[in-house]
């Protein structure tokens, strides 16, 4: 029984807001969330999950409202906790991808992010076999999921998708067994 999970990385956030949890979408992000709604409407989605962060929820809210489904918040799907605001994100990200155990004080390393996101993913799979699911997520969190199933995914791949907001990738599973992933155009 095939399960399809559409991971939707959030639309463009307002980076002037430094609080990760409450950072909203920009005007462009709001417009792009409507494009996401239109793309997903014919995918027979039966459940919607999301990181609790505002930008992830707001990217899929229009879609959820349009089909009358509740967005179930999963705290373990949240984005990586950097620890403190990082002005030179590129160098920080490069260092984390070179060393999955590297983190700043009070922050998370990519291995920790990967473990909690993969655990959340397998819980979602267990509860929704054979269904089509949407998961609202983030660039780094999603990249660690991709790397779990494709160990060759690295920093260069992360950098390629980093500016793409929103971004959709569909994973297919047969039961709990990974079958494929595919980037989608919306």
TrEMBL record:
Pfam families associated with the record: His_Phos_1
Alphabetical list of InterPro entries matching this protein: His_Pase_superF_clade-1, PGM_Phosphatase
Species this chain originates from: Tissierella simiarum
Record lineage: Bacteria, Bacillati, Bacillota, Tissierellia, Tissierellales
Coiled coil: none
The protein, known as: Histidine phosphatase family protein
